[in-house]
């Protein structure tokens, strides 16, 4: 499991100081990007060198406990299914031992030029399977 720390900034919250619901998706996105980066894969380099991009295909989110301004959160990310052209992540945002938000997010691998499905590069799949 990959874990990425997040601090809640004022811009992440509504007028009541609670994280705006759509911003949890941003937190999940950052964690997936950092997960790839931790394996040595930069998304701009994947576009330039492998001709692939990753795009969200579907999201199922459950909001469990509100996160608030200035709190420290952790985003846990785990690949729970790897197919030829897609990855499904289980992601959870916690504040200490409290689950704030959980999600199942399916990511499609696309050709950077045609935006059609394209096989995930083998080296990425191998790294994900070995590390996470």
TrEMBL record:
InterPro entries: 4-hydroxybenzoyl-CoA_TE, HotDog_dom_sf, Tol-Pal_acyl-CoA_thioesterase, YbgC/YbaW. Pfam families: 4HBT_2 (PF13279). Keywords: Hydrolase. SUPFAM superfamilies: Thioesterase/thiol ester dehydrase-isomerase (SSF54637). The keyword Hydrolase applies. One of its GO terms (molecular function) is fatty acyl-CoA hydrolase activity. Belongs to the 4-hydroxybenzoyl-CoA thioesterase family. This is Acyl-CoA thioesterase. It comes from Crenothrix polyspora. The lineage of its organism: Bacteria, Pseudomonadati, Pseudomonadota, Gammaproteobacteria, Methylococcales.
């Amino acid at each position: 499991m990959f874990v990425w720390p997040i601090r809640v900034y004022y811009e992440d919250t509504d007028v009541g100081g609670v994280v705006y619901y759509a911003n949890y998706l941003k937190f999940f996105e950052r964690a997936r990007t950092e997960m790839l980066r931790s394996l040595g894969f930069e998304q701009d380099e994947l576009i330039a060198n492998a001709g692939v991009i990753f795009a969200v295909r579907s999201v199922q989110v459950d909001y469990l406990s509100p996160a608030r301004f200035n709190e420290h959160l952790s985003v846990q990310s785990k690949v729970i299914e790897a197919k030829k052209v897609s990855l499904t992540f289980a992601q959870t945002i916690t504040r200490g031992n409290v689950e704030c938000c959980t999600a199942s997010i399916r990511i499609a691998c696309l050709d950077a030029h045609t935006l059609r499905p394209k096989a995930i590069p083998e080296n990425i799949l191998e790294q994900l399977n070995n590390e996470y």
